[in-house]
Amino acid sequence: RFCFQSGGPNPQSVECTEPFLNSSYVSVTQNPDNMIFKTDIGTFSCEIRSDTPEGVDISCTEITDQVAEGTEKDAFFYAQLDGETEWWCLHTESGAMHCDRDDKDLKCHKIKHPGESDVLFVEAGGQAEGTGLREQLQNCAVKCGNTTGCKFWTLSYDDDFVGRQARNHDDALVGSKSECGLRNYAPGTALISTNKNQFVGYPSPNIQVLRYIPGSVWVYEMQPNLNPTKCKEYCLNNITDCTTWTFDQTAGLCALNVYIPIRRIPLAGRSPTPNLISGCIKRKNFECPT
To answer: In this structure, what DSSP letter does residue 8 have?
Structure first.
């Protein structure tokens, strides 16, 4: 990245930096009038209750004389610039709180938790045809090629439940069978390093022509360097037909889609469990699945 001094006919380049965003799960001890949690940047005590109203200022202090060994695990985010913490945010089941560092003081307030943790809102899919992976990939590609308006296809391959984690489909719908999904919108970007049994590909006129990518999910748009609240706001304000948003807390990526969601899939209990927060935006032509 390059930065330039403003003004003049020949601005010169200058050194510039951007904040470093990090996230992790932290142990939280919930008490009647406060919570204590240990993070990579210190141990904090915050005077907050479950019934604390949204937007109310919260007193948070860094402590050294107490140990946080709570059984609750919550998502913690923070941004640093040149080694100094600019802000941090803790997301719990009952809500979230955000703190900005002003000089050496923390200014904190409670915010409403957007979306749902470890949930995906997904499209429809049907049972894949064929007995092996190659045959199912071919049949799904040809089915897309023979379907008017199909732009790409997805396959969640069921390899006898070994290490299965279906990112786009719900195995409860079709038992232990693989699932083929046909998609009628043009994806803008690909998210890689997902489950090895997740495939996406292009329409095919016949089984001899097969173009696909393993371990990938295609989405309408992806935005980096956001948080769950900003991810939802981007969906609402920047994409006219945006229907679902998913924030990957590990990668710090916001995935946005324009399809009509058919199913709500809980991901808790799957191994490994994706570190996601997702939301559905209700539109006139559909209701969000529950």
So the answer is: S
Strand pairing of 84-92 and 95-102?
antiparallel
- What are the pLDDT digits (tens) for 14-49? 667 777 888 888 888 888 888 899 898 999 999 988
Q: Which residue has the tokens 């719908």?
A: 173
| Token pair in block for residue 180 | 């083929």
Spatial separation of the C-alpha atoms in residues 207 and 139, rounded to whole Å: 7
SS3 285: coil
What's the whole-model pTM score? 0.58
Decide: helix, strand or coil at residue 101.
strand
φ, ψ dihedrals at 133, nearest 5°:
-60, -50
Residue 47 — φ and ψ, nearest 5°?
Answer: -85, 90
- Is residue 214 scored above 50 in pLDDT? yes
Residue that has been written with the tokens 């195995």 in this structure: 171
Please state, in angstroms and rounded to a whole number, the distance separating the CA atoms of residues 221 and 64: 43
Structure tokens at 28: 């939280």
- Determine contact, residues 119/249, Cβ cutoff 8 Å: no
Degrees (nearest 5) of the Cα angle 135, 136, 139? 85
Q: Which is more confident, 236 or 164?
A: 236
The Cα–Cα gap between 235 and 256 comes to: 7
Nearest to 24 by CA among 38, 4, 45, 8: 38
Sign of CA dihedral 25, 31, 33, 38: negative
At which residue do the structure tokens 């916001």 appear? 254
